[in-house]
Amino acid sequence: MYNTNEIELKILEFWSKNKIFEKLVAKNKDKKHWSFIDGPATANNPFGVHHAWGRTYKDLYQRWKAMQGFDQRFQNGFDCQGLWVEVEVEKDLGLNSKKDIENYGLEKFSLKCKERVDKYSKIQTQQSIRLGQWNFWDNSYYTLSDNNIEHIWFFLRKCYDNKWLFRGADVMPWCYRCGTSLSQHELYDSYKELTHISLYLKFPIIGRNKEYLLVWTTTPWTLTSNVAVAVNPELTYAQVKQGDSVYYLSEGTLNSLKGDYIVLDNLSGKELSGLEYEGPFDELDSQKGIKHRVVSWELVTDKEGTGLVHIAPGCGKEDHDLGKKEGLPEIAPLDEAGNFLGGFGWLTGKNVAHTTKDITKDLEKKGFLYTTKDYLHRYPTCWRCGTELVFRLVDEWFIKVEEIRPLMLKANKIVNWQPAHVGKLMDDWLTNMSNWVISRKRYWGLPLPIWECGNKHIEVIPSKKELLERAISGKEQLKELHRPWIDNVKIKCKHCDQEMNRVKDVGDAWLDAGIVPFSTLNYMHDKEHWNKWFPADLIIEMREQVRLWFYSLLFMSVTLENKAPYKNVFSHEKVYDELGRPMHKSLGNAIWLDDASEKMGVDVMRWIYCKQDPKFNVNFGYKGTAENKQILTLLFNLTSYLEISMQGKKISKPLKLEIEDQWMLSKLNALIKDVTENLEELRPNVAAKLLEDFFIVTLSRTYIQFIRDRVQSLLGKNRGAALYVLYEANLTLIKLLAPFLPFLTEHIYQKKFMSYEKIESIHHFDWPSYDKKSINSELENKFEIAEKIIQVILFGRDKAKIGVRWPLKEAIISSDKKEVKDTIELVVEIIKRQTNVKKILMSNKELPRDYVEFEYGKLLLNTELNEDLEREGYTRELIRRIQNLRKNAGLKKENKIELVINTNYDLNEYEEEIKEITGASKLSFDMGKKSYAHKSLEKIRNKEFEVLFNVL
């Protein structure tokens, strides 16, 4: 096998030293352009192998379009802001909370975040180069740049002018470790299977002695803020008696009860609505004056729990929405660190993570606890730090979606999504999306351009230029558009002349990435340049980006230009380990890209990804390396066979082609057509499998076998035509493979083709175009039939235990299919050569019982070996043995030998054939008195042959 790592490092050096990429870009400059926008990689840690899948696709398509002659920008991107960076810096510094950050110093913290981004963007750049990616690495975009931030400000001002931007109170998923809310799209994939204690509670009904509402919850801390119980008005509820107590719960959840019970009555939820009850924490100051009542809610089910839902509008999104509808009070119990606020008695100051047991004991002591059960369910966690989220009533900044929703749905209709189902996922997301919460109560991120005065007047600043023009203080310290420096900039209110301060919030990191079709193309300052490259012809990322990057791109583009920012979107699934588990450092199963590049080789990794169906996850590991490395070694060996056969001379185009040559050129041109079409249709996996099937089956196992005898002998029939077609097939193949396997194809080209073609790099060739006239479907169909005939004859040989080197007199085929007769007439010589059968006969008669049946008829082999056939068989087998002896002696094809075959078996008839094939200048059947360096006694069937030779 070829040494992948050694070859790839040498090719990287060759590309760099000879500026191969730069010359390619110059070759296509000012030609038709093709716009690709790179989704920014988070510059926060080194890449793992999971990053390589998408980056392989990106490089594949950019290389392919370059070979097609398109001018491109080749710009990489880095995502630089947000929790993903902050949390890692906190770990580095040993900080555990926002308070720790503020004590450390916000300026120092921001600089540390920037340092981390700088460090890992450099590491990721080197990893991308090692992966074979071509980009202008010195021109990568960074989402932390003032230019990127300024373009987001421009977008937010447009939202404000549209009356879409607003501040509002809502219950949001909240990470109390990070001290910030999360948006709907961040929450989507953050659920984990967790076990919590669920409580069954008995709320006393006011005015009814020992009658209780049986209520269930999995979040005991929210009971401190309970204001209502919800029932479904259409659901049937049961009144049951246990001991001297009466409980109300849904008929479908009676199995929740402990012990024996008696059903007294059934009633509808509507009949329960309006009842008042004693709350579980009425003694708290926060509960003073609250009247607890039963309300109707159609969303209540009895699939779990008791059919009576505890409602705390300050602790749950759905509860909050119901509370608005019913006019329920809102009690928000937690501060941003997850600690109970004042007014919550003995709980005040306690962290929500450590209160479940104490709350349970308190409820039991007060007589509210009925029972407890462990409950396994999917619960949201912080996507960055893993903390279990709470839901908290907070003031945040939102962008309304109702007006833009139909515009986004319309824009999405003209986008080509591949795989197609991903476009449907986007439609579903757009149809159900909530208002976009864009504010985060953090530090290292996009500073929201919102200034507010003491009179609550709001201004949204659209540009750095306007900010500096309006600044009344702080602009001298504004080294960049980040906290804390921007927090010092004050402006004067246009409405009341008061000083305005920037709100402290930073923005959702998906604003950073969503604006790049505008910021990277300088939308605000050079519309002509922007128009040239917008929208993107293609973007590529994981399928989960539907609700993240793909969504933010579409939202921001429709807002600014009322059109989609991309024409085509290609997505893929996830990379798991060999056992199908997510890769995590904590599990010890993560594979870093550097390690994989060295151990398996980049091209092997790329080939695994290119062949993978993007609709399914990849289970990635080193076990699959050997098989794919063998496949690529075969590709390398194919061209070595060509090189040996050509003997340093390029063959001119022949005047005549044999039938197998015509077939090969038909298959080759069909391959060009099919690969090109599948790449155009965003099916790179299909294209890759077509290419692999071509060089393994069509070229190696079939065509080379067809022409081996023609090529092996200098006097072979129309040898030049075979070599010409073999050369064209190999060169065209590596051109087609170049975007997929940039290292191996370059290595093959430099070693095998450069001396003939004179073009500096395989990547400087134009993408092959197919010749429609050369594609002969009818001929290909006949060869398919011929292959089936060859296979069944070889099967018959195997059944009779007669190896293919032993010639057979005849094969009789019985078939009533015209295409079989036509095929045999056309390619009978090929069938004979491939099966070593002297005659192929067609018959309409019934064959004897020992026939073999196949798709196109029946086959009967004449397996009787006469003396002539047997002699030829011995000769062929002996030639193979001599060739192996040459190989074991380290000889090359051009090395001549003096050969002796010491035997009493007459081989004189085949003397010239033996000499030509084995490279023997002299052949004797009597060793005489001379000594020989190489000797071997070869036993073939019942005969012995002493083989001796010296190298001349």
Written overview of the protein:
- By secondary structure, the protein is of the alpha/beta class.
- Among the domains are: 191-380, Valyl/Leucyl/Isoleucyl-tRNA synthetase, editing domain (Isoleucyl-tRNA Synthetase, domain 2); 450-461 and 476-504, no CATH class; 619-767, Isoleucyl-tRNA Synthetase, Domain 1 (Orthogonal Bundle); 779-865, Class I aminoacyl-tRNA synthetases (RS) (hypothetical protein PF0899 fold), CATH 3.30.2320.20; 873-951, no CATH class.
- Helix content is 41%, strand content 20%.
- Strands 11-9-10-7-6-15 form a six-stranded mixed sheet. A five-stranded antiparallel sheet has the order 21-20-24-23-22. Strands 5-4-16-18 form a four-stranded antiparallel sheet.
- β26, α18 (549-561) and β27 (568-572) form a beta-alpha-beta unit.
- α1 (4-18) packs across α25, α19 crosses α20 and α22 (659-680) packs antiparallel against α23 (684-712).
- The longest helix has 29 residues, at 684-712.
- The chain is elongated and about 120 Å long.
- The model has no long low-confidence stretch (mean pLDDT 95).
